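Predict structure. Chain length: 531.
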Amino acid sequence: MADHEVPVLIAGGSLVGLTTSLLLAARGVPHMLVEQHRGTAIHPRAASFHQGTMEVFRGVGMQEAVDAAAEREFVQNGAIIAVESLAGRELKYFYRSYNDGVEGLSPTSRLFITQIGLEPLLRDRARELGADHRFATELVHFEQDDDGVTSVIRPRDRGAEQTVRSRYLVAADGAHSPVRKALGIEVNGRGVFADCVTIYFKADVRGMLGDRNLSVVYVNHPELLGFFRFSINADSGFLAVFATIGPDGSRDSNVGENISTEQCAGFVRTALGAGPEFPVEIDNVQRWGAAAGSAARFQDGRVFLVGDAAHVMPPTGGFGGNTGIADAANLAWKLAMVHSGAAGAGLLDTYDPERRPIGHLTSEQAYTRYVLRVDDSLPKNDLMDPLDDASIELGQVYGSDEQPPLEDPRNPTGRPGTRAPHLPLERDGVSISTLDLVRDDFVLLTGSEGQAWRDAAASLAASEGFPLKAHGIAATGPVVDKEDRFTKAYGIGAGGAVLVRPDRVIAWRTADPADDPRGTLEEVMTRQLFR
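Prediction complete.
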């Protein structure tokens, strides 16, 4: 008999594992998380968070807390720029401000916050909601069968091994995922193409920054390639070094091998454009491999891969952590509905076909940006053309090989498989977003003449137990569309309806009324829930 029985076991307690835990806890799914480290992140790591990620946090009531923590760490909405050195020539602006061109696409904004600042917020809130977190605990072994997964866990400090019986195992255990390796799942893609270092340092760079608000600073120096991020006080930061350049122009991507503290300080001074006497104190150095690839499968029976366990990508574009959080958002509501009995187990089989193509595309886009922004000496065979950042972040399309994989969120179609467009609305005198109408259940949104659809949704929720709510959006009523944009943005008429999943993805729509709205909606919901 197992020492513990839980519906879900999460292996890995960093950014994506903690997000998965929070989303499950918010939906009332009991689970255990095990993490071999003793606590949350001690190095900043991922710091760039996109609007889609912030919408996930908004959906569980965390946006204000994350916004406030971000403001304590960085001056927000800075530029992303390429320079020869911080004190030297400016080469190119990728963004004059980080939210250029995406204002109005979401009720949230892109922001910068380190994992040091973010992970404790996720951990604490998940625990408040009942999550069982066990840090300094290793997943030693697991076996799955037709009914569940039996795992062996071991505390690092003391105590005997224990067994955990779960219905499902979520692997959020990083780029070198032991779970993925135990399953024999290969990672396909570009592989590791640079042996990099991230150098955490203290130095007063206020004079070099001047009055510029720079969120990310790419350094294309004659002697090295890398990027900076600086603290809010401009008295510390980190430099990620991708490659060094010799006098003959040759590039060496094996930066991390046998690197010394003195070399690290020299790299920082070079990238700053400072002289040899400029004070630099090295706090820490992390060695890592720049890689791009995605797992051949994101699911194996009752085991699911999320985050870096499923896909790896270089930091160019800031897509890594955001893509992992999108994995968690896709998987968590499905696990919750299967756990509650609202949906059949077949719902979980949609995770891989939805997330794997997106993981591959995003990994390749990050590689394209690495080649174009950092190191154009890398192989360019089958290099994807760079796609629009906002489309990658908010325009992902699920469900059909016949459709383009992305759409422009500035011109949303409202078609099934796309993110529900954000529109400003008003409810009971309070400004909200269309996305705020979607929480734990499916939501049916209708036009001004959609009462029959709303009545059908209420009837099915009451009689069949479907997790379904409905809202009418019109010029007058409980939910007011003052700008009269809803029907156009969602591609329906006044008598039409749109069904939105709990992860704010459009599941189904009809432009017009139906002769039998209850029967039509029952068929749609039965299909969506794999009943």
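Summary: Residues 351-373 form the longest helix (23 residues).
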